[in-house]
Amino acid sequence: MVGPDRQRKIIHVDMDAFYASVEQRDNPELRGRPVAVGGSRERGVVAAASYEARRFGVRSAMPSVIAKRKCPELIFVKPRFDVYRAVSQQIRTIFAEYTPLIEPLSLDEAYLDVTENRKGIFSATEVAEEIRAKIRAETGLTASAGVSYNKFLAKMASDERKPDGLFVITPKKGSAFVENLPVGKFHGIGPVTRSKMEALGIHNGGDLRSQTLSFLQKHFRKAGPYYFSLARGIDERPVCADRVRKSIGAETTFNTDLFTVEEARAALEPLIGKVWSYCEGTTIRGRTVTLKAKYADFQQITRNRTVDVPVTSRAVLEEVVSALLERLFPVSKGIRLLGVALSSLEAKSEARSGQQLRLPL
């Protein structure tokens, strides 16, 4: 833990509309036009949307048919994860010029601890400016960055000036920033928790700060102490370059509930893509596949399968998820959230790659 006399200097770098921006960079005909990566005109779900598409209300995880309705000129592009991974590695190399303390969150975002950096630059803001300039020069893409004294505030700061922006939250400004921040914008507070907080009269960081620890523990259980600290601008989590992940997962809450297996299967496509993209970008593989579903009445269930050897391809992951999904239907109530996770992780070199995967379904 960093003492009070030595504040951490954390940067959160977030690429702007990463997948869509790569497609626009590589295809001049797409520049300045609304682009959706993934999905299709008839079915599927948007994996990423360009800023031109977002102006029409198109968002990731949105069914393609709704996206097309919102933006009739929307152009659908098939994802190229091999290209996204290669660009991500370029960006990671730039980060490594400044610090070994890099905690990737996905292909397009990461935390960097630059308290002590390889360039000997005192100002974290200056480091962030250099990194953003290098990313633009070497990849032709833009990145937004947040600079602060902890991970929570750095993450919040990176959203403040998107796209292609930089925002700094100093220790003196941290408390006031959190006080005025709507709880729905807190990183880690999703739609369900936000609704619960608002029902309790908690609408912003100031409202959250006014609650006692016991009150937050009563209503939010294990997350209570975490919310108690965030409301005060406190986040002691270090940037972990070599953190051991217990699972890899992705989930999304839908604007409208899903009732058919076809809708659910299409909605799972980008989630499976995110999970497998992480696997392909690392040496990590997993044996336990978990499907999470939350219904309109907030009842939540999970279904999982553990296979004999680590999942070796996206096709296999899709097969297991599809088998788990089939068991949920037919449904008597809509599905408001779906999630996919891979656990029982191990490095690829440890996997018994010579064995054929058997699916005990």
Descriptive account of the structure:
The active site is at 109. It is an enzyme of class 2 (transferase). Its cofactor is Mg(2+). The protein is an alpha+beta fold. The protein has three domains: 1-169, 2-Layer Sandwich (Alpha-Beta Plaits), CATH 3.30.70; 175-230, 5' to 3' exonuclease, C-terminal subdomain (DNA polymerase, domain 1, Orthogonal Bundle); 247-350, DNA polymerase, Y-family, little finger domain (Dna Ligase, domain 1). The chain contains 13 helices and twelve strands. It has helices spanning 18-26, 51-54, 64-70, 81-96, 124-139, 151-158, 171-179, 191-199, 205-209, 213-220, 224-230, 261-281, 314-326; strands at residues 10-15, 35-37, 48-49, 75-77, 102-106, 109-113, 143-148, 166-168, 247-258, 284-295, 300-306, 335-347. The chain has a five-stranded mixed β-sheet with strand order 5-6-1-7-8. Strand 10 (284-295) and strand 11 (300-306) form a beta hairpin. Helix 4 (81-96) runs antiparallel to helix 5 (124-139), helix 10 (213-220) crosses helix 11 (224-230) and helix 12 (261-281) packs antiparallel against helix 13. The longest helix has 21 residues, at 261-281. The N and C termini lie far apart (46 Å). The model is unreliable at 350-361 (pLDDT under 50).
